[in-house]
């Protein structure tokens, strides 16, 4: 039995699309521009566009279209600001054994890492954060950024090397 | 030059855990490994700014309905349908009508909301607005009816030939498919002819007949229309109109051959005996007729 084509015009499907992709698209834009308000506005406007053209859109291609609309919108109003990230303090089993010095160092390291991440080029930061924060595979990142997996890997490697250089002297071995 | 610098995807593959054992061992030995490791570990503890997808969805939908034009088609149609339903409802209150109808051979007495009494002759239909009728006392009549109207302003009978305006009176209106007659038995009525800027005021015992597209005034000497008393009276009436009247009163069908039905008839027939009625109308005209056994069909030559 042929599966019935899902329509973006169906509000239920629209909501599903929104709930599935809103966060990842917003994060992606944020990693590039560093302006959370701008990122959210762009994604929301993109969904508005998606809705208005819902009749012409095939449900399965909505995701890539969404990324395309957002990327184009960002290109139009790109003004990089500092990316501010939250740091999750995951409780660790061996916490009690950490010396205050070590914790301090880690705290320090985290701050410097954040500063360094902001110094990465937008393309490197985008790949690095999509992979490390959003836990996206290289294949997924390749789809989002519209480059090859190989190129993603190259950017990823380069991001690490750049970060190391930026942090370089700060780290005690 | 370190291996990770020569192989430009090595670090990426290490991050993804795709290195072979040899590659990994080699990489771990490098000076920079420690830093890369720490970068990787710490970077994974970062999180993107907090998100509220639900709120964002609501906001997006506000944007959609704000920018408007295209809303959800289903909702749009439902809205339109609901609006139409409400409009029909309102419209219905103002236009809802009440009808009284008589079949052939049937009479009906109707009392209108203002106390006026209407006697409907057979095969007739009286319609008036169901609500707010007292504000505009208009009735529409197809067929024939005898009105005894309470004294008040503005009682109007609509017919296909024109309107009969009333001021507390008794009158008979006959508005059949091919004839119009108006008899005033008491008081005053005014007939406004449709599409002919023509008015006729009728007082007691006045009568107008629309004949060949002109209004003819006559006088009557009765107190009530004849049909109320079970008799139809004709004066110089084309035979076809008489036959139509018999058809309605007795609910029979005439099958007419070559008989000339435009000849004029003067006379009457009773409502309670078909054979007597036929005898009193057709025989004087010199027309032979046959009645079917079930008395529903009358054949004329």
Considering the chains and any ligands shown, give keywords for the structure.
heterodimer, A: 173 residues, mainly alpha, Arc Repressor Mutant, subunit A, elongated, B: 301 residues, alpha+beta, Jelly Rolls, eleven-stranded mixed beta sheet, three-stranded mixed beta sheet, 8 helices, 17 strands, 30% helix, 35% strand
Overview of the structural elements:
- The complex is a heterodimer of chains A (173) and B (301).
- By secondary structure, chain A is mainly alpha-helical.
- Chain A is elongated.
- Chain B folds into four domains: 41 residues, no CATH class; 43 residues; 127 residues, Sandwich (Jelly Rolls); 71 residues, Phage tail protein beta-alpha-beta fold, CATH 3.55.50.30.
- Chain B is built from eight helices and 17 strands.
- In chain B, strands 2, 3, 4, 5, 6, 7, 8, 9, 10, 11 and 12 form an eleven-stranded mixed β-sheet that branches.
- In chain B, a hairpin with a 4-residue loop joins strand 9 and strand 10.
- The model of chain B has no long low-confidence stretch (mean pLDDT 83).
- Chains A and B meet through helix 1, helix 2, strand 1, helix 4 and helix 5 of A and helix 2, helix 4, strand 1 and helix 5 of B.
In short:
The complex is a heterodimer of chains A (173) and B (301). Chain A is an all-alpha fold and 173 residues long.
Layout of helices and strands, plus pairs?
The complex is a heterodimer of chains A (173) and B (301).
Chain A lengths: L10 H23 L2 H17 L9 H15 L9 E2 L12 H20 L2 H11 L5 H8 L3 H19 L6
Helix pairs in contact in A: 1-2, 1-3, 1-5, 2-3, 5-7, 6-7
Chain B lengths: L2 H4 L3 H6 L5 H9 L3 H11 L2 E2 L5 H15 L5 H23 L1 E5 L6 E4 L5 E4 L4 E5 L8 E11 L6 E5 L2 E14 L4 E14 L4 E5 L3 E6 L2 E6 L11 E8 H12 L2 E4 L7 E7 L3 H9 L7 E2 L5 E4 L1
Parallel strand pairs in B: 6-7, 14-17
Antiparallel strand pairs in B: 2-5, 3-4, 4-6, 5-6, 6-8, 7-8, 8-9, 9-10, 9-11, 11-12, 13-15, 16-17
